[in-house]
């Protein structure tokens, strides 16, 4: 019974790793679409969001099946409840990549991001990618130290987010309201992507150490 | 055992109803703070977010305790997993009310919403309040018809959200970029509040009917 549980739990973990890799690829392609007005890249992100949703449903079904068949307790139960939460965060990260891609499509063939904002969005995307990579690693091999690093990455994202607003609010902002609205929403999408990664990371820390990380 | 399970499940349901009432009150007060530059109302929303978070943790603990002690299957198991998801949506709705309140505080004593946008935000807040009321009702007495109404409320919210952008993007928008950024984020907070309510409603429909509602 216990051995069977381990095997099933490993399948759930692998699905979560697959999700983390998929949401990482989605945000990479969405960023490329955004910064290079690459419509094909954007459309592939939008199409492939269904695959991420399907992985999410598979995690849910397997977890519910395991809860029903094996009636786990203690740390096994905690691992399954954590998997449900982490899957929900990853699914949402996929939606946020989809939102970035849709912004690129809406403005195509113009770039949605003007020259003045390319650097800050490139850096936000870099932090997002680092975060997604860490989540995939933490899920393959739970590691409280690595999960805790996500908090620092989130701080870096928040700094970039503030920098974005400083550019938008400078007296010499030349692009008007529409571009500012796009940039505001895009900034929010990257920031929320990081927040969900941190949530997921905290859940993993709690699972490994039994200690809650707070702000 | 079964009778004991019912009693415990009712406690979980009551906690969810308490959460729904708390997030409804939070958004009402946050909206008042926003539209009347009422700093005390805003600060009470921000302080009381901890109560919503505490209710969320209580739901999680009770659900995990029930899973461990009673090893439910079939519809009982589904009810508990649904409770976890609904609680997560409600907790996030509380955060969004908190974000609205924080925007009001940041701009105080100026109003964060200029005269031209008061009507659209008043209507968005009205839809948000109707939605929160329905969620509280659906949770006290599961009702697939009422839950399905949430989709229509969400459409009304999306229409208002589009209307907001039309005002911001009109050639005669007089308030500049900073106010447009605030309004963009505020619009997003109300819209996401509605989205989470719809998610929660769909989970309840699924619980009652076994049928998934899709877009």
From TrEMBL, chains A, B:
InterPro entries: PhoU (IPR028366), PhoU-like_sf (IPR038078), PhoU_dom (IPR026022). Gene3D superfamilies: Phosphate transport system protein phou homolog 2, domain 2. Residues 17-103, 122-204 form the PhoU domain. Transmembrane segments: none annotated. It is found in: Cytoplasm. Belongs to the PhoU family. This is Phosphate-specific transport system accessory protein PhoU. It comes from Plantactinospora endophytica.
